[in-house]
Design goal:
24-stranded mixed β-sheet; mainly beta; 28 strands; four-stranded antiparallel β-sheet
Length: about 280
């Protein structure tokens, strides 16, 4: 029989109509010494398979199954399975948490989480999280998230996210996000590796997205994409507007800089050629 490192005490606490019992360490485990108190649990079943889990704090109830990890706080319930990671906060009612995951907040009702830093947001469904930083009001119901991705908001139902800074928008399907700043739009395809995407962007495939790096006097990124109105929107630095508005802005700002002006005009021509079929599609309808 597996060695039990924790047992229930007769110290109880009622919380939201549920009676919890405090546990105490029967052996040294992690940073907790034998004889030190730990979390509050509803039943011994919550910790009977806990192994070397360091369960120092939090409230654990329902069908939650603690099998490993370091737990310093949080509310763990439902079908949650904790195999590893570090938990100091959050409301966890489902999902499988393991590896190097760090959870300090947020609402988790599903998903496979083995890495990343979570301090906010809502995670459920088939989400797979191996890395990244998730906070704020992000809603994640699917997708594969890892790397240096920073997700502060938005709605994610699919796609592969390896990087980028996401604060809004809807990401699904076969979208691949490797970089860039996304604050709006509907992205269900394409490979986004830089630039700024805002507002009414609609990107269904790679042909609906254009990025040029190291352009202009500041060597920045120029991004162009289709919108839900079937128009071309351009972002460059602080500028966001239509392709025609961007052309006018270039002529205004770089009227005396022939080299920069020419560079931008060539890129504008490329964008017009690349997106011509999407604009024509709207006209023909």
């Amino acid at each position: 029989m597996e060695k039990q490192n924790w047992k229930l005490t007769n110290i109880s606490e009622e919380r939201n109509g549920i009676v919890y019992y405090r546990i105490i360490a029967t052996n040294d485990v992690g940073e907790t010494k034998k004889g030190e108190y730990g979390a509050f649990v509803e039943s011994f079943k919550n910790i009977e398979n806990c192994g070397d889990a360091d369960i120092r704090g939090g409230y654990i109830r329902g069908g939650a199954d603690i099998r490993g990890g370091v737990i310093r706080g949080g509310d763990i319930s439902g079908d949650a399975v904790i195999r590893g990671g570090y938990i100091s906060g959050g409301d966890i009612s489902g999902g499988d948490i393991s590896g190097d995951a760090v959870i300090r907040g947020g609402y988790i009702s599903g998903g496979d989480i083995s890495g990343g830093y979570i301090s906010g947001g809502y995670i459920s469904g088939g989400a797979v999280i191996r890395g990244g930083y998730i906070s704020g009001g992000a809603v994640i119901r699917g997708g594969d998230i890892s790397g240096d991705a920073v997700i502060r908001g938005g709605y994610i139902r699919g796609g592969v996210i390896r990087g980028g800074d996401i604060s809004g928008g809807y990401i699904s399907g076969d979208a691949v996000i490797r970089g860039g700043y996304i604050s709006g739009g509907d992205i269900s395809g394409g490979d986004i590796s830089g630039g700024v995407i805002r507002g009414d962007a609609v990107i269904r495939n790679q042909e609906m997205w254009f990025l040029a790096c190291g352009v202009g006097s500041e060597n920045g990124d120029l991004a162009a994409y289709m919108t839900k109105e079937n128009t071309i929107e351009v972002t460059r630095g602080c500028f966001v507007g239509s392709l025609e508005e961007f052309k006018n802005k270039v002529n205004e700002v770089h009227a005396n800089n022939t080299q920069i002006n020419k560079q931008y005009m060539l890129l504008i021509q490329v964008i017009e050629d690349e997106f011509e079929k999407f604009v024509k599609c709207e006209v023909s309808e």
